[in-house]
Amino acid sequence: MICELCGKETNRTTLVFIEGSSLRVCSDCEKFGEVRKPAKKEEAAKSTIAQRLEVRERRMKSRDVYEGEETTLELVPDFPKLIREARMAREWKQETLAAKINEKTSVINKLERGDIRPVDSLVKKVEKELGIKLMERVPLIKPEAKTSGSKGLTLGDLIKLEKE
Ligand SMILES: [Zn+2]
Questions:
Q1: How far is the CA of 40 from the centre of ligand 1 (A)?
Q2: Residue 1: inside a domain, yes or no?
Q3: How far, in Å, is the centroid of ligand 1 from the Cα of 7?
Q4: Are 133 and 8 spatial neighbours (Cβ–Cβ below 8 Å)?
Q5: pTM of the prediction?
Q6: Mean pLDDT of the chain
Q7: Does residue 47 sit in the same domain as residue 63?
Q8: pLDDT tens across 83-113, in order?
């Protein structure tokens, strides 16, 4: 077996989590990842690189600090509720909204039940007609840290990433 972190040949690997990716690593590299959620008291014992990786991870998870990170627009999960509430606030029937955006009433009905995932053009029409926002900007999860086949990230790669 090959350690996916340092690339060393080893006869035993452990599955650990590093920056949200799972890697099979040798016993020397186990300490760079998390086998499970770390307990607070273990933090003091962590190596510098593990701590820096954690800081990166926290930064990527934080909703407020993704300036400069790649983002993507996604449909908000509670769009059915938002549409229904905005329509009711205007005292419109589903038919009324349907007519205004030139769609079938059944489309509005399915939207409000969450039965369909509207295409962008439909989202835009509904947003404009009801004056609501149904899309939110979320950080794009980059596939760069994913392991592919036998060639995983080496420690050298991680250090390179840190310097970027
Ligand atoms: Zn290793």
A1: 24
A2: no
A3: 6
A4: no
A5: 0.46
A6: 80
A7: yes
A8: 999 999 999 999 999 999 999 999 999 999 9
